[in-house]
Amino acid sequence: NKTEAWSARFSEPVAAIVQRYTASVGFDKRLAFADIAGSLAHADMLAAQGIISADDEAAIRRGMAQIKSEIEAGQFEWKVELEDVHLNIEARLTALIGDAGKRLHTGRSRNDQVATDIRLWLRGEIDAITDTLKALQHALVALAEQQADTILPGFTHLQVAQPVSFGHHLLAYVEMFGRDAERMADCRARVNRLPLGAAALAGTSYPIDRERVARALGFEGVSQNSLDAVSDRDFAIEFTAAAALVMMHISRFSEELILWMNQSVGFIDLADRFCTGSSIMPQKKNPDVPELARGKTGRVTGHLMGLLTLMKGQPLTYNKDNQEDKEPLFDTVDTLLDTLRIFVDLVPGIRVKPAAMRAAALRGHATATDLADWLVKQGMAFRDAHELVAHAVRHADSLGVDLSALTLAQLREVVPQATDAVLPLLTLEGSVAARNHLGGTAPVQVRAQVARWKAQLA
Ligand code: ARG
């Protein structure tokens, strides 16, 4: 009965269902390369400090190289009775190199080891997510540049409000994903601190050099309190919160894509490779990818709630509860990266239908504010102008036309002070071009923002 690494203390083997219940190797083997990197840095430090011999360190290095290639080749035999990734790798190391393998765990615990592994692994994933966010921004900026002069109705309350450039609309998402990238960078700085050296919870009696380990692993700092180091999962929660925000942005974009693709709206079409058909209705082409992205947003929000709940009742320091941090974290990364990668490809495949956008913008009197603004510039108080234009809108409605389609004579029946000068301002182009200031929808501003983003993303 010496299957478990800690079993000498016990008089009977762990029950089969308990073994399965407590084991994490089925999912935490994903941390294997981070685990090996952490072990190599630890062994290097132990040798430099004279805690293990140089020969032991060389043997550990050799053994780990072999284990790495076994894992890469899919030949490593993961054993559930060895509980987790850490004990599996350590057992294999000892089988390969003997006593030197048994000395690797000197001055270390799985508690600081697992915290180190997750941080190392997550740091790499954050970098991949940041790169993919930037690729998505690139795709949106490219489309925005093509669509700077395309006009669609901007909505409030999902009702026609004012005409906007479609490029401007797309750049709104570029802003959101830009904040997401900032949040990822900010979160990375707190992920990137080394817990190793905290050992089980109190530190260790060996003369360790934590700064050396931090340097070797590319950590930007060392955790300053051993109790906090092994029990802190703030970094995982922060990351998941940042991921949930990205997904929320993707979900809003998805909702718009789905709406725009609806036949009654018809603003865009999506490339066939992102849609699926129906088993009964031969004509169907459904926007499954945006729908699923919208749906998967719920999973990531759920993981955030799950992790917060996981931590809220835990006394210091490490508790086995923490093993439950991994699956939500892994699924968050997988869901987010898959979704972002698909959208990087989906965006250039958006087929824009400017005529439908234009027709929609010409229903709903989208340029009424422009008429009011013109009256104000002639000296009228804004509230009076607002009321007069409301009458003009009712007049247009009674004639069955959009405000922008009124002739000057028709307009003058309600707004006697109207002149030739006002008509161009009531066109879609006139309205959009007039909003020519930082952050406005005028095509020249859209082009300036495209240029700014191109420089920033380069
Ligand atoms: N598999 C464990 C985890 O995921 C590693 C740490 C276990 N430590 C312990 N004392 N049981 O958190």
From TrEMBL:
PROSITE patterns in UniProt: FUMARATE_LYASES (PS00163)
Main location group: cytoplasm
MF GO annotations: argininosuccinate lyase activity
CDD domains, alphabetized: Argininosuccinate_lyase
Keyword Cytoplasm: yes
Alphabetic keyword roster: Amino-acid biosynthesis, Arginine biosynthesis, Cytoplasm, Lyase
SUPFAM superfamilies in the cross-refs: L-aspartase-like
Enzyme nomenclature, EC number: 4.3.2.1
Segments forming domain Argininosuccinate lyase C-terminal: 365-433
Superkingdom of the source species: Bacteria
Protein's pathway: Amino-acid biosynthesis; L-arginine biosynthesis; L-arginine from L-ornithine and carbamoyl phosphate: step 3/3
Substrates-to-products reaction catalysed: 2-(N(omega)-L-arginino)succinate = fumarate + L-arginine
Subcellular localization(s) per the UniProt record: Cytoplasm
Fumarate lyase N-terminal domain location: 9-302
Key word Nucleotidyltransferase present: no
Annotated InterPro entries: Arg_succ_lyase_C, Argininosuccinate_lyase, Fumarase/histidase_N, Fumarate_lyase_CS, Fumarate_lyase_fam, Fumarate_lyase_N, L-Aspartase-like
Pfam families associated with the record: ASL_C2, Lyase_1
Family of the protein in this entry: Belongs to the lyase 1 family. Argininosuccinate lyase subfamily.
NCBIfam families found in the cross-reference section: argH (TIGR00838)
Protein name: Argininosuccinate lyase
Species whose genome carries this gene: Piscinibacterium candidicorallinum
Gene name of the encoded protein: argH
